[in-house]
Amino acid sequence: NDQHATKRKLDKSVQDHLYFDSYADVSIHEEMIADSVRTDAYRLGIARNGAAIRGKAVLDVGAGTGVLSVFCAQAGARKVYAVEASSIAEQAAQIVRLNAVADRVEVIRGRLEDVELPEPVDVIVSEWMGYALLHESMLNSVLVARDRWLRPGGLMLPSRAELFVAPVSDLVLEERLRFWGSVKERYGVDMSCMTDFARRCIMNRDIAVSAVAVEDVLSHPARFAELDLHAVTEQELQNVRGTFRCDCFGSASVSALCVWFAVSFPGGGGGGGGDKPLVLSTSPFKAETHWKQAVLYLDEPVEVEQDTRVEGEIRMFPSEESARHLCIHVECAVGGLRQQSKTFSIPDGYPDVQ
């Protein structure tokens, strides 16, 4: 049994190594910084909370290129501890020097879990979100940081996360399924029996990460879960769940459920509209981000009309193979019929993202 535990430990360190290694490459950082919805939300979210940051100690968990740490220094932080496990930390240190904040921003290369800080901090900032919020997410590390280093009454940026779902139609999918029926007309060979096979191949158990067009969303979004980052525990992340109920806009074919998230930064007080939280949303109704949306295909498309109800339960939990990998279990009924039950995961080899 000890041997088994050691193997699990080894596996975990290999997983960690692969994960942190993927952040050493330039393209992932280019994609994140170029995502102006993401980067501007953090820039404004940090600036808005200047009163809580000025003269205080800040911890940036998974600092990457250090952009958030520089934002915090620009907002008047006395000291920023920028913790980064991958070799991008070397570039972060250069960026910090280039921006003349090296006296206040200290880049620490290492896993958050292994790092010692000389003092508790007043603010924790982190861009920890993965696909569908929790895939390859650093949230566990952020919670360890919170429990270990954040002063009582300290601030988490962002402070809240919400998960949403809506039924969607996929016209490209429908075209691909119709294709096999058209082969006979084109080439004189009937291949219509391929339609079922094609449907099983495409409408599989993979979480598809893609940008959903707003016209393909068939109802108002339903919020099915919310995380208060000041209070949520690692234990609760083992099972994030909630129910949803959506009423369809009109006649269409529901081929999938689409899941996305939003995180919010407190308003920071000071009146003048500054009290309203600042929201970074990955909704298909908003400008596209590098997270896009997570698409979960039903087993087969279901026709709906105005006010057809799509309802069910969604449960998100880490895969048994890798704690960083997300599984999503869906129980869903369309128009009160045909309960569908399906567990999805992101296919291996999919590029990690934060």
From TrEMBL:
CDD domains: AdoMet_MTases. It is found in: Nucleus. Residues 160-331 form the Protein arginine N-methyltransferase domain. PROSITE patterns: SAM_MT_PRMT. GO terms for cellular component: nucleus. Keywords: Chromatin regulator, DNA damage, DNA repair, Methylation, Methyltransferase, Nucleus, Repressor, S-adenosyl-L-methionine, Transcription, Transcription regulation, Transferase. This is Protein arginine N-methyltransferase 6. It comes from Scleropages formosus. The lineage of its organism: Eukaryota, Metazoa, Chordata, Craniata, Vertebrata.
